[in-house]
Amino acid sequence: MIHPEIPLAQSIIQIAKAKGLNTIIISPGSRNAPLTIGFSSDPFFNCYSIADERCAAFFGLGIAQQTLTPAILVCTSGSALLNYYPAVAEAFYSQIPLIVISADRPTDKIDIGDGQTIRQRNVYDNHSLYNANLTEEASASNDLLIQNAISVAINKKGPVHINAPFEEPLYNTLAENTYTPALVHIEKPSLPAVDFTSFKELWNNTPKKLVLIGVENPGFMDVEIINLLGNDPSVVVMTEVTSNLHHPNFVSTIDTLITSFNEDDFKKLQPDLLITTGGMVVSKRIKAFLRKYKPKAHWHVDELRAYDTFQALNAHIKADPNLFFKAMYASSEEINSPYQSWVLTLMESRKKGHQKYLENIVFSDFKAFDIIWKHLPGHLQLQISNSASIRYAQLFDTKPSIRVFCNRGTSGIDGSTSTAIGAAVVSKEPTVLITGDIGFLYDSNALWNNYTPKDFKIILINNGGGGIFRILPGHQEQAVFNTYFETEHQLDASHLAKMFGYEYYTATDEQTLEKSLSRLFSEQNERPAILEIFTPTKINQDILKEYFKVI
Prior knowledge:
Thiamin_PyroP_enz_TPP-bd_dom, Rossmann fold, alpha/beta, globular
């Protein structure tokens, strides 16, 4: 086994190994050669080579999303690490551990006109939980900075940045390491005990409690707690497709319930107590509702962070949600409240209207999603891109055995495909990405890698532009809108599929979609596949708007 000659590179590699971090995503470059040589030469590390740094960062994000352990990104100097930034911001807001190691020029080469050189120190300052700006020589102080960064990424669940300056020669190697880093054990900070007494008092005396779950990992809540919440007449639980939480009495299609509400309905739904947990909430309607019809109290339950999304936050309860709800239900008496039963009666009516409406509409985005949802196999990992795709997904009940993920930290269209492929690489289940045409084209370099599993599938809804802008307020059928908002195009994925070795299927109506979905999910996987569904550009928004009127 060979090792880089540069002691600082030796230190970084040995510390990563000692801390058990073995996922390394490398983007080719020269300045990072000492790290590339060291990581790729040691069989302990699983190394991936992804040329496009933006794709590489989201690929690593997808792996970390699934493993819940940090992925290490390694890049050369200059603009390379700036291309990591979208994924760094996503990791920051989605609480996903990510470690960026950027190779740099020595300090005396900065701002003198040297090539491929920018100001790299603290470049992610606004969205990084820790910045380790190393000095060129290996030292105990550098060792400690590296280990602090790793500890923060793990314990605070987010991105950190390690900037490592290397001087030439960069490619020299040794048979043995010449530097041994000073390893330290960093204890995970313990949370202070929470006194639940005052919270429980309000809980036990509140007949209208709304529990809203944002983005969560599958299996985060105990079955016992799920059943307690689902069978409590004073509690309405609202989930989203990204909540990965299921119970027959939970409201899983929020917009279907509340979009057609009048003033009296909203006042009747207005909670006395709002309890939130999990990450970002997709539904704009529930956010607008809770900001206008504020609860008397809002508690967010999360061990790390709380956002005042509804501008009514009274308490950030730093506790595991299971611990919190167990405390609330300990020795509590059931409250006789009509709150949950009223909502469930409405939902039953909405579901009938939902089904009836979908049976009678023409082929469109909405109809395509209905058919897709009926054909999704029972056990898979579902990755969904942002904009229209995630919003349509919100309108359907998803099988409990399907695990759902979406980059909702920053809600950008960049990186959805890269994230899905990274997640697929480490998932034990088949992975399906549902995406729109603009997001797919924007991240098409994601297909440029050697690691995509054979059972990876992309369902691509191509409506000829950014259909989400037709749904949002401000849509006008004119040249400015079509060119600069919707981004009209006549492109398809057939040539990309051929270039990157994907099976390619198409659908243009209900019959061809049914047939293509059957082939997509039943044929032997010899290589990954793309199913491109072509839908009308100019009727989708009308069909969706009419849906909310009639249900």
